Amino acid sequence: MADTSHGIGGLTYDKKKRSLPGELNIFLAMIIIVVIFEILGQVLPYMNGQSFLFDTQDRFDTIFNEARLRIIILQVSIIGIIALGVTQVIISGGIDLSSGPLVGATAMIVMSFAQTELVNGNPNPKAVFGPWAFDLPVIIPVLVGLTFGAIIGSINGALIAYTRIPPFIATLGMFLICRGIAQAWTRGQPVSFPTESFAALGKGMMPVFWFVGLAILMHIVMRYTLHGKHTYAIGSNEDAARMSGINVKRHKVRVYMIASMLAAFAAIVLSSKNLTAQSGMGIFYELYAIAMAVIGGVSLTGGRGSIPGTVLGAMVFGVIQSGFTYVKLDAFYQLMAMGGIIIAAVVLDKMRQERAAARS
Amino acid sequence: MKKIFLAAGLSALMMGGSAMAQNIGASIARFDDNGLTIMRNGMTAHIETLDGVNLQMEDAQDDVARQLDQINNFIASGVDAIIVNAVDTNATEAMSNAAAAAGVPLVYVNRQPVNMDTLPDGQAFVASNEIESGTLEAFQICRNLRAEGKSGGARGYLMNGQLSNQAAVQRSKDVHDVIGMDMCNFMELIDEQTANWSRDEAQDLMTNWMSSGEPFDFVIANNDEMAIGAIQAMKAGGIDMADVQVGGVDATPDALVAMAAGDLDVTVFQDLAGQGAGSIDTALKLAAGEDVDKTVFIPFILVTPENAAEFQ
Question: Considering CB atoms only, which of A50, A125, A192 is closest to B212?
Answer without folding.
Answer: A50
